[in-house]
Amino acid sequence: MRIEAGGPSWPTDLDHIDGPPRTxxxxxxxxxxxxxxxxxxxxxxxxTPYGEAQADRFGRALAAAGLIVVSGMARGVDQAxxxxxxxxxxxxxxxxxxxxxxxxxDVPLADELxxxxxxxSEFPPGQGPRPHHFPLRNRIISGISEAVxxxxxxxxxxxxxxxxxxxxxxxxxxxxxxxxxxPMSRGAHRLLRxxxxxxxxxxxxxxxxxxxxxxxxxxxxxxxxxxxxxLVGETLSVDELAQRLGADVSAVLVELVxxxxxxxxxxxxxxxxxxxxx
Length: 278
Description:
Layout: E1 2-4, E2 23-28, E3 38-42, H1 49-64, E4 68-71, H2 77-87, E5 92-95, H3 107-116, E6 118-121, H4 133-143, E7 147-150, H5 158-168, E8 172-175, H6 186-193, E9 197-198, H7 202-210, H8 226-230, E10 236-237, H9 238-245, H10 249-262, E11 266-268, E12 272-274
Parallel strand pairs: 3-4, 3-7, 4-5, 5-6, 7-8, 8-9
Antiparallel strand pairs: 1-2, 2-6, 10-12, 11-12
């Protein structure tokens, strides 16, 4: 199936990203682009056993909570996340770097996704994969998702490109901590240093997105106080907050740290702060 920008089946989330595609080809359950809430799970093609286990853990939990798992069907973390979502009886979308009729690299998984999930590509039928296709498809992975979770990534992993796209698009970026002495932790740790949200369990993210009372992190109360009120509908730096409040930067930073620890404020990439999703 081919859909065009502006058409009734078009995912309007893509209208507000840099360099949006104008045409998409779909194979599978096309309603997944219009319904539900989507979270991307991405990471290295060569995960450690820990990384593969976490991709499975997060994929299963997010899908079981009713979130649609988005990834790129690459070997490693991507495929583990897709398979986990399917195993949980949930929904999943794969954004490809090739045509939907010539999926790469896993045809059996693609065939299953074409029945139980959805394959998406901006590349026409018959188009095989090319190296430059994958950074391009990453902007669609993040563009149709409201959050991106980086499970495990080396310092030059393509999943960091997805995280950069997500930050530029205003999507939430999260990363899992790993072993400090392992090269597959370097990319995720870099994102954490740059302000990505730290996740230790899928329940934390589910609670933040869905406000599930059974999750470890509960939905925060309505914002109270000048600092929290200044963040309503805004994502601001410490300096911007200090200027708006007419307060000292150090005092604002202390209050931000306190609110972050209590779950009232979320640190976004680039040293910015926002209120958590409700």
